[in-house]
Amino acid sequence: MIQKPAPAGTWxxxxxxxxARFPAAHSCRADVALVDLEDSVPDAAxxxxxxxxxxxxxxxxxxxxxGVRISSPTTRDGIRDLAALHGYPVKPQVVLIxxxxxxxxxxxxxxxxxxxDYAPLLYALIETPRALEALPSIMxxxxxxxxxxxxxxxxxxxxxxxxxEPLLHARAALVTSAAAAGIPAIDSPFFxxxxxxxLQQEAERVKALGFTGKxxxxxxxxxxxxxxxxxxxxxxxxxxxxxxxxENAGGSIVRVDGRMTGPPMVAAARALLAREETRTPxxxxx
Length: 286
Fold this sequence. Notes:
By secondary structure, this protein is an alpha/beta fold.
């Protein structure tokens, strides 16, 4: 039973061993909230995190969509994470798989978690040079629902800085492969928690590049990301006008607000409206 693709927009990641932070993640009005069992959890706290994270999915709110980032399924911690998830009374809707370098990772996770009435959305965290080289094969995985970019591990592996230019090639390659596969691409968190101007600039750049959302590790970043990625009412109205004009013209090239509008523009307008339908009505993040 495959669900609809998870909505794009704002994603927040919360350490799995810090249960006191779960209510904030549930109420911060992100589109997707992930509880983390991987990098943000110290090794000594991982057994505790697997147990504490059960509560993240108990009595879930209607928003956000809830998920989990496991450890790599090719590691002992990843195997233990999957075994723990299998026993959760309420299952995550999204499972983020880190360090993905092969479509085989999806087969492992799906084999461990899927049942006749449960099949979570599986997202790949692309964060190594080997993964970038293997993107075409990764994108052909049967269960892939979307991808996230991990700048911290990628920059460490390539010994580049986390500034815009050194990571531009990787971001562009990831967006291109995701678009070819017809799946959403979510960008990495911005790690300078106090630089909201820098966050906005990076969010605007990745949106212009083709990313459909951006993740974060602190609720203070959500309003900025949401403002960038949620279309303004004027954009939605313009998209509706383009679709209506195209339908009235039987698919021919038409003039809308003084601009020639052909099939690519109509397709983009339809995609924007489709993405908005997957999201809850606009609310002001807190």
